[in-house]
Task: inverse folding
């Protein structure tokens, strides 16, 4: 650091500054003395101007209209066969042999009532339903349904359903019946 300070004199600084000013001023002067459109293709080196050096607006101005579509080329050769795909997921089980099965408990005033309905053979339950007929007090349109379903239980083997219903009015209720309905099918 001391060596630089010893050599750093006023004369050195001023002479370096003068050199920079002359060189900078000369190039600015030279640029200002060029006539408009005086630099053409003969003054440029071959391949000195590339697309990267041209402004986007100039590129757009140089682009003409799209020409007509050419004729279609020949079909290319068949490509190589692709790799075998992964196996698909197991589909959901299908059904066949759809059958509606019903059973009924005869009409009486007994409460509660239970009916079990079983699918034939090896068929399985795919749906249930029930019907209570009677068990109403009063007359239409103000009749009150006294009998109601209490429980539907499907067996562990999915081949039978037990329906249980009762009459809310008890022993004084009108006669009523309970019908259990199941939809059975072969499930694969």
Result:
């Amino acid at each position: 650091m001391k060596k630089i300070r010893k050599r750093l004199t006023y004369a050195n600084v001023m002479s370096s500054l003068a050199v920079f000013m002359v060189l900078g001023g000369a190039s600015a002067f030279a640029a200002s003395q060029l006539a408009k459109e005086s630099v053409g293709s003969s003054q440029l080196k071959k391949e000195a101007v590339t697309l990267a050096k041209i402004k986007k607006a100039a590129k757009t101005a140089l682009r003409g209209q799209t020409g007509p579509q050419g004729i279609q080329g020949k079909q290319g050769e068949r490509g190589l066969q692709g790799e075998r795909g992964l196996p698909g997921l197991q589909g959901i089980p299908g059904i066949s042999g759809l059958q509606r099965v019903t059973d009924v408990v005869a009409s009486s005033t007994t409460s509660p009532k239970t009916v079990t309905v079983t699918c034939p053979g090896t068929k399985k339950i795919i749906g249930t339903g029930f019907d209570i007929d009677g068990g109403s007090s009063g007359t239409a349109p103000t009749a009150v349904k006294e009998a109601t379903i209490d429980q539907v239980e499907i067996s562990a083997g999915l081949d039978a359903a037990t329906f249980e219903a009762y009459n809310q009015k008890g022993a004084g209720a009108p006669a009523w019946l309970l019908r259990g309905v199941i939809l059975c099918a072969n499930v694969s």
